[in-house]
Design goal:
By secondary structure, the protein is mostly helical. 70% of the residues lie in helices and 6% in strands. It starts with a helix and ends with a helix. Its main location: membrane. It is found in: Membrane.
Amino acid sequence: VAVVSYCVQSHRYNIVENFGCSGSPWMDVYAILGLHGSPVLLGAISFVYGAIAIYNFIAQRRRFQVILQQNSSLNTSRFVRLIGVAGVNIVISLLFAIRETVLTAHSVYPTVSWDYIHYDFDLVFTYDSSFLLGDPQAWVELNLSRWLPCVASFIYFAFFGMHEDMLSYYTYVWARLSQALLRTKERIFGQPL
């Protein structure tokens, strides 16, 4: 993807006020296939495997209970979390990848030469945020590209960071930190708290 990104990059980057840097691909057929094809392909593969996992879990629930009882490292809540992540991954990855591809495919540029695309390559375009007022689609795209990784991080943390094993570990770490801080205060002030 990095090689394809460089091949279809028309100039260094764009700077948008209040948003930061953004890419500058020349959106021809190769850019759409190279940049948007891999997320759609990976999302489709994830969709197939996630759907198979969810279907097998529902269809063979009793068998899973026996397997889970035999395997001490995997319990029901962990397995349900994995199935939940598969379901969320199906919705998020594939739908947003297809959405990006469809929106990008509406503005396909003609395929031209390497020299034409990379002419004046060191150019950096700057935009103030006022151009977003006239183009709500660009505003949505910039915000989605900025906030989707954050939302995905919170979703995955909710699945894997908030179960009983991790909560007990957080309690343990908090107790250790509290003890260390209290000892430090005792050494500094010379009296127990």
